[in-house]
Write a structure and sequence with these properties.
alpha/beta, binds adenosine-5'-triphosphate, ABC_transporter-like_ATP-bd, ABC transporter ATP-binding protein, six-stranded mixed beta sheet, ATP-binding, ATP binding, 327 residues, 14 strands
Length: 327
């Protein structure tokens, strides 16, 4: 549905997006991920035809990005959605439906359905008196008034509480189940991991990884193995339930732990694999923490998780991986 080739955007010589290439299939939910300043918003605005690329092409179905006919089938949710503060949710949505010439009855049905699904209460309250989460729901409903088949959502869940975030992400998934195509950006990698079919990871204007989350894991991540033995082996730590834990990064090392345990008269009691999260892969690729962690809205710090559960849980930590990899 979307074909992007050689896309580049510079602002007064500053490269915000550097030679992007990617395709998005019809009915796909596609994530554009990266830290603040990675070039996500610029990419999405170019897709929506709101920013002119410096170089490159964007085809959306049979149209070029920005084509007036294409825009009729597009719903864009900006990162910050300024709403007319004095309007109520209902009057605001009716206003936008009128701009798209949606018949009144149809518009009412469509917007009420969306607001029901998003559980927006107080639909006749002034937008200026609504919370951030409520405003975001109204903005999402606005992106759907023209029943578009392509939705471009810039950070749809950014800054929302966990419950509202969940609603928004689930709702985004539902849109795809209803046959729509969704491209959305996020700096919280967990949001993307839980929802997207495919992603591109951007950093400083560049795509540094792409594919499904399992593909990215396979290409860039490293599966770790937590091997529990009944006797101590070199480098293992004792667990609360009287076993010994070794963390290693390949099957050869697993076999070495097994051989050592058996030589000491013990055995391997359990082996658990541990897949790296997208965030851990990002850390490895970009070499610095994503913004999600900087603003405290990201996933829990894995090192803190490991500390809290004594290192014996299924979730590993970046620090732990680094420390034990030497085995
Ligand atoms: N209109 C503009 N003029 C000049 N520089 C810009 C403009 N818009 C974006 N930039 C710069 O381009 C880079 C990419 O910005 P962009 O907003 O696309 O990033 P982003 O990944 O969406 O970040 P965020 O998560 O903070 O929204 C940033 O360094 C930004 O400062």
């Amino acid at each position: 549905m979307i074909r992007v080739a050689g896309l580049r955007k510079t602002y007064g010589g500053f490269p915000a997006v550097v030679g992007s290439d990617f395709d998005v299939g019809e009915g796909e939910i596609f994530g554009v991920v990266g830290p603040n300043g990675a070039g996500k918003t610029t990419t999405l605005k170019m897709l929506a035809g709101l920013v002119e690329p410096t170089e490159g092409t964007i085809e959306i179905g049979a149209y070029a990005a920005g084509d007036a006919e294409m825009r009729r089938h597009l719903g864009f949710l900006p990162e910050e959605s300024p709403l007319y503060e004095d309007m109520t949710a209902r009057s605001y949505l009716r206003f936008f439906a009128d701009l798209y010439d949606v018949p009144r009855e149809e518009a009412t049905r469509r917007t009420e359905d969306t607001l029901d699904r998003l559980e927006l209460e107080h639909r006749d309250r002034r937008l200026g008196d609504m919370s951030k989460g409520m405003k975001r729901k109204v903005a999402i409903a606005r992106s759907l008034v023209n029943d578009p088949n392509l939705l471009i959502y810039d950070e749809p869940a950014s800054g929302l509480d966990p419950l509202t975030t969940n609603y928004v992400l689930e709702f985004t998934r539902e849109l795809v189940e209803r046959g729509k195509t969704v491209v959305f950006s996020a700096h919280n990698l967990y949001h993307v991991e839980s929802v997207c079919d495919r992603v591109v990871i951007m950093n400083r204007g560049e795509i540094i990884a792409r594919g499904t989350v399992p593909e990215i894991r396979e290409e860039h991540g490293e599966t770790m193995y937590r091997v529990f033995t009944t006797v101590p082996v070199d480098g293992a730590t004792a667990t609360d339930d009287g076993r010994y834990l070794s963390i290693v990064d390949d099957m050869e090392a697993v076999e070495a732990v097994r051989a050592e345990a058996e030589a000491a008269g013990g055995s391997v009691a359990d082996i658990r694999t541990e897949e790296p999260s997208l965030e851990e892969i990002f850390l490895d690729l970009a070499g610095r923490p994503p913004a999600a962690r900087e603003d405290g809205r990201g996933r829990a710090d894995p090192a803190a998780v490991a500390r809290a559960d004594g290192g014996g849980g299924d979730e590993g930590s970046v620090g732990e991986r680094g420390d034990r990899r030497a085995r």
